[in-house]
Amino acid sequence: MRKLLSTVAVLLLTATLLTAAPAAHAADSPIKLTYSIFFPPSHGQCQAAVAWAEEIGKRTNGRVQIQVFPAGTLTKAKQCYDGVVSGISDIGMSVFAYTRGRFPVMEALDLPLGYPSGLVATRAANAFYAKFEPKELAQVKLLYLHAHGPGLLHTKRPVNTMADMQGMKIRSTGLSAKIVEKLGGVPVAMPQPSTYEALQKGVVEGTFGPIEVLKGWKQGEVIQSTTDCRGVGYTTAMFVVMNRGKWEKLPADVQAVFTEVSREYIDVHGRTWDKNDEEGLAFTLSRGNQVIPLSDTESGRWKGAVQPIIDNYVQSANSKGLAGDDYIKTLRELIAR
After folding, report:
1. What is the pTM of this model?
2. Helices then strands (H, E): number in the chain?
3. Mean pLDDT within 243-265
């Protein structure tokens, strides 16, 4: 009897060890995630994203390993958001404006409200989302947002006035396409990765974007002039989102690390945008390109020309049951703050 009990005990212990071993192994296995980014590896925003991923790994003691795929190698800029939703990538960074009309609340961020810097635009974007938490982003876990400094006009020939811009083909995305229209140009939609070649081949005669694109995307090599129209300075809001299912499967302490690091990297990205703008300005001037400031009178004309864009957005949002007036009021307050 004693021998039988001993045998049973050994069998039970063996079974316990066999079943526990895979669980222990699973607990020790790192959480491996993929991160799709459309910026090239040399761009400051890609480098900031890589630093964010490394910080996640560091603060989780290696439990989380994030593999970054830059330059759209995993999903292209326009497919990035859907790629996260469907699980092609676990995390993604791209631009709301690349899927125009899909994010009606977040589109308010891109309006020509006179953003003075990337840091202000980035902080305003995150505060705006925190206040309204639009349902249009419910499919994903939003980690944080960032947004570039004032969008300016970069052209192959000088633009001193709105009259100079009449009929010019200008690369633009989202709401910046409407700005081009109101200023008399012809908008041509395309993502940043396609812009250099389009300028080089004359497919477009200019582009709207922060001055950082002149170095970050090398566009200073294929333009000759920048019109400093920061009075109508718009921004382009960019998201960092995670697959909802992957987020919900993360242990609570790991989620806390993601939240903490993401909160810190809001200002990292904002300041990176401003640093990149400084570098873009230095780069374009070093090539002999000119920067043309608008006179106060001309700047007033540009502001008047684009005001209907803001008014139309408010009317459209209100008609959909959204709080268009509140969105604009909130953003103006955040920019001023």
Report:
1. 0.85
2. 12, 11
3. 98
